Description:
Largest sheet: 4 strands, parallel
Distance between the termini: 16 Å
Mean pLDDT: 90
Helix content: 25-40%
Number of helices: 9
Oligomer: single chain
Shape: globular
Number of strands: 8
Strand content: 5-15%
Radius of gyration: 17 Å
Structural class: alpha/beta
Amino acid sequence: xxYLYAPGCALMSYKPHLADKLKEIIESRYGKVDTILECCxxxxxxxxxxHIITPCVTCASKYANIYPNCHVEFFLDVLAESNNFIFPDYxxxxxxxxxxxxxxxxxxxxxxxxxxxxxxxxxLVEPExxxxxxxxxxxxxxxxxxxxxxxxxxxxxxxxxxxxxxVVYCSSCIMSMTQGGKQxxxxxxxxxGERTELKDNIETWNAKLTDFRKKHLRKxxxxxxx
Length: 226
């Protein structure tokens, strides 16, 4: 079986070293794996039977839909039940959560994130609209409407969070919560004990995503190197 690690373009645009740390854990479980950097929305060529491993909810959902003959593993499911990984202890710190749009049809994935928070001793204070009824953070509106309206939506969503610290598990949600004046706590940052901080504004963040996707766009049938 061929194993492929898909960190996702958003994670690679945010903190590629976190993707590397996660890959080390994955390889300790499966041995050497190849890395695919092409965005899942470009429908990269994958052989039937490929085992795709990803920490990205959007990638997991997209690959499962377009490659029914491949096995897709959301690696945070594995990490959440690991007996080997040493999780940091946040001492019961209260945080809210922004559930990414891609997870609305994946309650099991939302449960995984909450299990990870439990293992890190984080007290979750849910906003009124969360889980399968979660409200979009506003990132999806970028490029579809006026930038001021996008900012206003992001600020509005952030204001619905009961706590100043807000757990996110989509890298783009970091931007939305920052725009709204909250302190985002990205799930991989929490897991690896790092501070969540995105210095880009909405325009530069989306430009960075676009540039990364263009850079790693491959031709159909092209192989992936480690």
